[in-house]
Amino acid sequence: MRLPAAVSCHKGKMEKREGFDLDTKVEILKAKKLRADILENLYNLYPQAVTVGTIRKLLRYKDYNPETEIRKAIYYLEGKGYIAFTGNEEEYWDSDIVLTPLGINLAEGDTEDVGVSLDV
């Protein structure tokens, strides 16, 4: 017997699972797409290092204006090893970032990450 998505069975007990509301789901999807857009921009410019400020400007046409969201996405990508900071790290927006070999594999569809929505 298959249970509905909102109900789960744990140790023989029926429990209602709390899911994300629609606004939260939309925010998660936007974050995944933003990470993918950053990777795609870096892939298209590879092997050249690009400043974080340049990435921010490239994303403006897609309505990714909040700098905090861009910072979060870059932090995620760096933490996963897809990008690396090189050169000037004193001023964040002037810092250079470059795609790593792992990031290239992700951009080319050789690996997957559930936190990045790539259209490969």
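the 2nd protein, sequnce then structure:
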Amino acid sequence: MISKKWRIFICIFVSGICIAMNQFKLIPINQELMASMSLSRTQAGMLTTAFSISEAVIILPAALVLCRLRERATTLLALAFALVGTVMGGFADHFALLIVSRIIEGAGVALIAVVLPTIPVRYFSDGEQGKPMGIQAGYISLAVLLIFNIAVPLKNLFHTIKSIWFFTGALYVILMLLVFFLVEDSGQQEDERPRYGAVAKNGIVWILAFCFLGIGFRDLSYTNWSADFFKEVYQLRDAASNLATSMSYAGLWLGSLLSGFLFDVGIKSEHLITVSGGCLIFLGIWCFTIPIGLIIPFMLVTGFVMGLGVSCVYMKASACSTSKSDAAFAVALANLFLYIGYFLAPTISGAVIDTWGWTADTYAVEVGSAIILCCGLLLIIMEQKRKNIN
């Protein structure tokens, strides 16, 4: 029988996956959306950018919301934002209204992004946190994997791209009921506010934040457009292109899961981040020249390598905080920089592709990988200095 802590974790984890589907649901239908609303690739990128702006604005206050409302109410609030934005987007018939719906959806993702990474710390003991942390670190990956592989079948089944909005809306209603009846707040009441100044003075937190910026920028500089690239250059069909792109996120979740287990057995997170960044630089060379027969294994390996660093950021951010309130703010700050990466990548890479073509986007991809590598090296240097002092 599933224990209470795992039941709560699963409910919030599944909610996180479904809410995160909002962020990526436009990518599998980019071309159809651009055609139906007469959008340029830069405008299509702005839809993702607007979403990320909303996340960036909400993410830091979300830490305070979590401390005040606790886990259950904050998750319900995140689902409510996701539902309202989804319904509005489903009925949007022009670009401006769709932008507004993306902003509302982004608020829901920001809230769940603070709740979910803190669940292992709040409900599990110290020796048990690595596994749930590794599992939850891949919730975005699983969201992308799902939406990339159900978007086109839903569109074909109901003969409209808007079926994706109404499908996710139904999921949010069901999840709100499940969370309401099955989730209980953790037993530790938090009267204290996060110590914003203390967290902001922690150099490790800032390095982790920049690492997430690199991960977000590297991720969407490539995967935001890879499905379109596979369709245009390799002439793959919609479903095949989306499947190939989703393999990156399947690999990312597996990498996150493995790093959670490695963390529990004593492997240092800074070493995993450094390995991740170095391998991503190497793999990035072939982003737009990989032979067609190697697309799926290439995407799997690329995602797996990136995933090694993702859960390490969450674990390190929580571990270097002295209280659960501070940990929530440290996670929020790291996620803020992830969203800055998500905010910058689609617009910059979309403009690069429109101006210089597909292969020029390799430079944007490699910038993100280099940031990850540099952050990993800085963490190793700081850890070595700390040991020398002690």
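The two ends are 45 Å apart (CA to CA). The chain has a mean pLDDT of 88.
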